[in-house]
Design goal:
86% of the residues lie in helices and 0% in strands. The chain has 72 residues and is mainly alpha-helical. It has a domain at 24-71. The mean pLDDT is 74.
């Protein structure tokens, strides 16, 4: 189940970025962590979708194969 977007998290991230403006190296690390976290979350969701879809497609493919055998 997807998580609902919490607008307070966005404001908190912006506040942290503002505080880190005085430390460009830390800001760069923070931005990199955000990118990694975002990709990880997106990949997990994508894997869940792919796993469910591939199981459905596999069962459809198997059933279509058996009907092809009957035609021959």
């Amino acid at each position: 189940m997807p998580e609902k977007l919490n607008i307070l998290n966005i404001f908190e991230i912006q506040r942290i970025k503002t505080l880190l403006l005085i430390e460009p190296d830390l800001l760069e690390v923070f931005n990199s962590l955000l990118k990694i976290a975002n990709k990880t979350l997106n990949n997990e969701k994508l894997e869940d979708i792919i796993d469910k879809d591939s199981e459905s497609e596999l069962s459809l493919d198997l059933s279509s194969d058996s009907s092809d055998d009957n035609i021959l």
